[in-house]
């Protein structure tokens, strides 16, 4: 649910103070724990270290990110791939197929020379 229009978007004031009067390239990474802050147009070009619960994930703010929240670009859960033995077997077959395709392509290019 979005915030009411008369209140405006929530942006942490400490975050605005950190970027006030600075140019996007000169400041380095700006650490923040404010994952719920909305990205404002003034933040474009800055790199924020957004805390994910364990460490700070660097997020370079682009124009397309304006209106989203900082926490959306710093995932809190690490994805472990699905599957077990079956998945490993499928990946192994895929690698073998790539290797044979590369060898076949190499021999055809060598034959043309």
UniProtKB/TrEMBL annotation:
GO terms for biological process: ribosomal small subunit assembly; translation. GO terms for molecular function: rRNA binding; structural constituent of ribosome. PROSITE patterns: RIBOSOMAL_S19. InterPro entries: Ribosomal_uS19 (IPR002222), Ribosomal_uS19_bac-type (IPR005732), Ribosomal_uS19_CS (IPR020934), Ribosomal_uS19_SF (IPR023575). It comes from the Bacteria. Keywords: Ribonucleoprotein, Ribosomal protein, RNA-binding, rRNA-binding. Belongs to the universal ribosomal protein uS19 family. This is Small ribosomal subunit protein uS19. It comes from Candidatus Kaiserbacteria bacterium RIFCSPLOWO2_12_FULL_45_26.
């Amino acid at each position: 649910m979005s915030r009411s229009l008369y209140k405006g978007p929530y942006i942490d004031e400490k975050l605005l103070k950190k970027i006030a009067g600075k140019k996007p390239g000169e400041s380095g990474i700006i650490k923040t724990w404010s994952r719920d802050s909305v990205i404002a147009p003034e933040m474009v070009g800055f790199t924020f270290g957004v805390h994910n619960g364990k460490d700070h994930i660097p997020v370079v703010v682009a124009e397309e990110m304006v209106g989203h929240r900082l926490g959306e670009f710093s995932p809190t859960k690490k994805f472990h791939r699905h599957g077990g033995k079956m998945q490993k077997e499928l990946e192994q077959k895929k690698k073998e197929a790539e290797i044979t395709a590369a060898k076949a392509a190499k021999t055809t290019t060598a034959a043309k020379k």
